[in-house]
Design goal:
The chain is α/β, with parallel strands linked by helices. 46% of the residues lie in helices and 16% in strands. It binds flavin-adenine dinucleotide.
Length: 1004
């Protein structure tokens, strides 16, 4: 940056500070409750966490008992100590807990927090909001009004969100006539350039089904509801700004902005703006592209530049998903980006009307001075601040720039609390300009410093850590999960239809068995078809009979000794090569599943990702377990424990995770030195064949893996009972799992092994929704867990147990959310639910729906039309623990709803089946969460999230009771099941002479 400009910015900033000296934003004013509490929160991180979480749950605490209980749970004991005096401020001076004192204190705390929320909200009702907007204008500020409640989970809620805008705009319309424009007022415009009415809108709220995977559907879904709002605004001569939300909606938002701006109806109306966030690394590029687009189209528009409100979310989610972090990670980098992009916009001020939204005096001063340097006319840019925040800054801005707009949220307190938490975080973050200047008293020179200089200083103090050399154990880096599908990446969205077409191009081919490395064809063949259109045959699969099973077992037995005698590392290397191949072909492998079993794109992609994880994880586990372990340290004797494979393993796999579970069981057997006869499900034999291809390309010796699809009725029992099979790894229904255990228990002539059975079976998984659960999250979590992949996951939620006091609200929103899901072929990304896997599954679901009609009340019944195997999506209320719908696994999209009197009853009901696989709890009560942790005895318990999608190495998966026998897949004990431990003891004493080794226990 040129030094004169930088100096001008600093001088401008100093003058700014001087003009507001001695003033402080109300949130930091220690004369009031909020200021005191904020001060305490900034000194005490544990209190801050509890406070913000408490603010979040407060609107749900509708009874005084509930309120007192939560105050106690959040603020006493543990790190937080006793209830901080500051929180009790304004309450009766009684230290006693319980009874009247607690009630009074609760009341005072509630009213203080609600008061704090109101500080940021222009009104809860339209009338009040409009009155306040008028007052704001009287004070000389323009406004942009924003409706709270953007977390819409259904189309009805999205309609209500749109209607909320139409309502407030209607009320403003009547009022605006009395508003005189600011400045000279040419054309009735503020400052001669800006409409007096201005609204900001969160696009994702306008379409509850918006998601990156369905890019086109999301853009059009949002536009359908945004058009009437914009039309109304246009009729009023107002302006609309499309807010920017999380990164996942960014490209959708840019696209819909362009479409709306350029539509014939709106083309000649220039008052549409979009927000860009400087904290995203790609925003500079986006800004340049938008400007290029505007020029090419000849369409002027507005751009609000912010730093961005979701920094914490974006960083954490990227880390969890394994995606590159999309935001700058050092605060001055975001400041630099804001300055750079601001210049770009100002350089194009003939086209773009600039809205600088920041409370940072350096950032603001930069815009003022850059605009002056570039000679940008004043009516081509304005400043914006959030209502209720940074009052001195906005006042100062009004004095200096005159053109200031306040962002004014309005609406109910419930969604308002979520907004309040965001604002509190923003105010109290260590890096926040407001905190540094008004609470921490940082020096002005530092606050106004050129961010490049700040960055240099920071880099010097905390140099970037060289990417930590990945920890290497036995030549292998530590395990990391494969990144989950990221459909914000346009190439991935494009790749799916192409890959699906490629699967179709090969449709109809015959798939042989693979025995001892040779293709074996049989006369008995069955087609594998697309459940969305059963007339579409994807492949014709040769079926193994008893003779082929015998041949496969022979081949596996022959290959065993040589494979067993390889080192663990040699075997692991084959898995690692297989992982690399699967990674290369991930979209192609996913596309096969989309067509063969009806998995949605994301679910299919993540299934292949999980298969890769198993390969990578078990490769490392095998190496870890491969080294002999010395037991005891006594001199004169050497005891070594080590593991050996058992022999031939039958892998009997399901169709629901057709690659992941197949690869998981197979790779575990193989990497530990066993050989495998693999029977895929008849419904997913094409996907299973993919595994044969992968292992072949990875260089697995012939006979170690034998692909042996066949009819269960013909060869299933034979495979299980075969005397040469030592291990059976099975995943599937409880009935088949129990049958396998029974068959495996019988010893046949020639059998040398007690067979080991590893069986993952069913579930009847429950999610508990507590009375203080965050319903925005709980509803989405339950819907995803119950209906993702049509409920055909062993982990799926099939019962939701809702605590009475929140039941009505939950059910009303849940049913609408279910009515909003699109149903249809999985290959179309707009469909959240597809067909079930085959006609028998379809019939089973329909049978249970009949049972549901007798046992409860069907609240939702959605039936897709078309020739596919579409089973009804159903939500059934009135189910009690003794009902069949509460006890039997349906394995389809039927959700039983149970109303429990309280959390304890909900917990007891959750545990009242003979399964124990997954479970979930949505609650914001620390005590209830703790109780669930202890007493909700299932294999995988999920607190405050959905109950599906366990990740290898992070959430080892598997249950107990009738849900399975064996250790958790993707966990540290899994491989041991495929191994026999042996110990060799050597006496090293010869006539009293004993060599003493370093690791012997000996004298110093
Ligand atoms: C009128 C108005 C409208 C707004 N509309 C939107 C909107 O549509 N979408 C949206 O996302 N936000 C929006 N915001 C919120 C805005 O993003 C925040 O208020 C803003 O980021 C705070 O920046 P600042 O310049 O005021 O403060 P500063 O304190 O200078 O900056 C704080 C910001 O720096 C960034 N940051 C913090 N830590 C780091 C780090 N370690 N590395 C890199 N960057 C970091 C974050 O973006 C953080 O918010 C709006 C704000 C206003 C005033």
């Amino acid at each position: 940056m040129n030094p004169q400009l930088d100096e001008a910015i600093r001088q401008r900033g100093k003058a700014f500070f001087a003009s507001i000296r001695g003033e402080s934003p109300s949130i930091f004013n220690k004369g009031f409750w909020t200021g005191k509490v904020m001060d305490w929160a900034m000194q005490n991180e544990a209190f801050k966490v509890q406070l913000f979480r408490f603010v979040d749950v407060l609107p749900y605490l509708t009874t005084s008992d509930n309120l007192s209980r939560h105050i106690e749970e959040y603020f006493t004991g543990g790190d937080a100590g006793d209830i901080p005096a500051v929180l009790k401020w304004g309450a009766e001076k009684s230290g006693l807990f319980g009874g009247v004192a607690a009630k009074l204190m609760g009341k005072a705390i509630r009213s203080n927090i609600e008061g704090m929320a109101r500080q940021f909200i222009v009104g809860e009702q339209t009338k009040e909001a409009v009155k306040n907007l008028s007052r704001i204008r009287k004070d000389g500020f323009a406004f942009t009004v924003d409706l709270l409640g953007e977390a819409t989970v259904s189309e009805v809620e999205s309609d209500a969100y749109r209607d909320g805008y139409l309502e407030v705009l209607g009320a403003i319309e009547a009022e605006q006539k009395s508003w005189k424009p600011f400045g000279a007022g040419e054309g009735g415009l503020d400052w001669g350039s800006a409409p007096r009415v201005n609204a900001s809108i969160k696009p994702s709220a306008l379409f509850s089904q918006a998601r990156p995977m369905d890019f086109e559907g999301s853009v059009e879904g949002i536009l359908a509801r945004m058009r009437p709002v914009y039309r109304k605004i246009m009729a009023m001569g107002g302006a609309l700004c499309i807010d920017m939300e999380q990164l996942k909606y960014k490209d959708i938002t840019i696209e819909l902005f362009k479409r709306l701006r350029s539509e014939a109806e709106f083309r000649d109306y220039p008052y549409l703006s979009i927000v860009l966030q400087a904290y995203l690394r790609e925003t500079e590029h986006d800004a340049a592209e938008l400007i290029k687009w505007g020029r090419a189209e000849g369409l002027p528009f507005g751009m609000r530049l912010v730093k961005g409100a979701y920094w914490d979310y974006e960083t954490v989610i990227a880390k969890q998903m394994g995606w590159p972090v999309p935001v700058w990670t050092r605060k001055p980098e975001s400041d630099i980006a804001h300055e750079k992009i601001a210049r770009l916009i100002l350089e194009n001020s003939d086209l773009v009307y600039f809205q600088c939204a920041s409370h940072n005096i350096r950032t603001i001063s930069n815009v003022m001075e850059t605009a002056a340097q570039l000679g940008v006319p004043e009516n081509r840019y304005e400043f914006q601040a959030l209502y209720g925040m940074a009052e001195p800054v906005r006042k100062g801005l009004l004095k200096v720039a005159g053109r200031v707009r306040l962002y004014c949220p309005y609406g109910e307190l419930l969604p308002g609390m979520a907004y309040l938490v965001r604002r509190l975080l923003e105010n109290t973050a260590n890096e926040s300009f407001l905190r540094l200047s008004f609470a921490d008293g940082e020096a002005e020179d530092i606050l106004l410093e050129n961010p490049h200089k700040t960055l240099d200083r920071e880099l010097e103090k905390n140099p970037p850590k060289a990417p930590a050399a990945p920890a290497v154990i036995d030549g292998l880096t530590a395990f990391r999960d494969e990144p989950l599908a990221d459909f914000t990446v346009a190439e991935l969205r494009r790749a799916f239809p192409e890959a699906i077409a490629a699967v179709r191009a090969k449709a109809g081919r015959a798939l042989p068995l693979v025995i001892g490395g040779k293709a074996v064809e049989t006369a008995d063949r069955i087609p594998t078809v697309n459940p969305a259109d059963p007339t579409e045959t994807l492949a014709v699969v040769c079926q193994a009979g008893v003779a082929e099973v015998d041949a496969a077992i022979d081949a596996a037995e022959k290959a065993f000794a040589a494979w067993r005698d390889k080192t663990p590392r040699e075997r692991a290397d084959v898995l690692l090569r297989a992982a690399a191949i699967a990674r290369r072909d991930i979209v192609a492998l996913s596309a096969t599943q989309v067509l063969e079993v009806g998995k949605q794109w994301d679910q299919a992609y993540n299934d292949v990702g999980e298969a890769i994880d198993f390969l990578e994880f078990y490769a490392r586990e095998a190496v870890r377990l491969g080294a002999p372990r010395r037991m005891g340290r006594e001199p004169g004797e050497k005891n070594h424990l080590f593991y050996e494979p058992k022999g031939v393993c039958a892998v009997i796999a399901p169709w629901n995770f057709p690659l992941a579970i197949s690869v998981g069981m197979t790779s575990a057997a193989i990497v530990t030195g066993n050989t495998v006869v693999y029977k895929p499900s008849g419904l997913s034999s094409l996907t299973g064949y993919g595994m044969a291809d992968i292992f072949k390309e990875a260089g697995l010796p012939d006979g170690v893996f034998n692909y042996c699809p066949g009819r269960g009725s013909v060869m299933g029992d034979h495979l299980v009972a075969h005397p040469k099979v030592s291990t059976i790894a099975f995943t599937g229904s409880m009935e088949t799992g129990l049958r396998i255990q029974e068959k495996a228990a019988k010893v046949h002539p020639g059998q040398a092994y007690c067979k080991k059975v590893i069986a993952e079976m069913g579930g009847k998984n429950a999610i508990i929704v507590d009375d203080d659960a965050d319903l925005d999250e709980a509803i989405l979590g339950v819907v995803y867990s119950a209906f993702g992949f049509q409920g055909q996951k062993c982990s799926a939620c099939s019962r939701v147990i809702v605590v009475d006091s929140i039941y009505d609200k939950f059910i009303a929103r849940l049913t609408e959310a279910c009515q909003s899901l699109k149903i249809g072929p999985a290959e179309e990304p707009e469909n959240a639910m597809g067909p079930v896997v085959d006609p028998s599954q379809q019939a089973k679901v329909e049978e249970y729906l009949e049972i549901a009609r007798q046992e409860g009340q069907v609240l939702v019944e959605r039936q897709a039309t078309g020739q596919g195997c579409y089973a009804p999506l159903a939500v059934v209320a009135g189910i009690r623990p003794e009902h069949r719908l509460a006890q039997e696994e349906v394995f389809g999209p039927i959700l039983a709803v149970m109303k429990a009197a309280n959390f304890d009853e909900a917990l007891a009901w959750a545990m009242s089946t003979r399964f124990a696989l997954t479970g979930g709890v949505y609650s914001r009560s620390p005590r209830h969460l703790e109780k669930a942790r202890r007493e909700f005895r299932v294999g995988n318990l999920y607190l405050n999230r959905n109950c599906v999608g366990a990740m290898v190495g992070r959430q080892p998966f598997g249950g107990s009771k009738m849900s399975g026998v064996g250790s958790k897949s993707g966990g540290p004990d899994y491989l041991l099941q495929f191994l026999d431990p042996r110990v060799v003891t050597e006496n090293t004493i010869r006539r009293g002479f004993t060599p003493i080794d370093e690791d012997d226990e000996w004298f110093d």
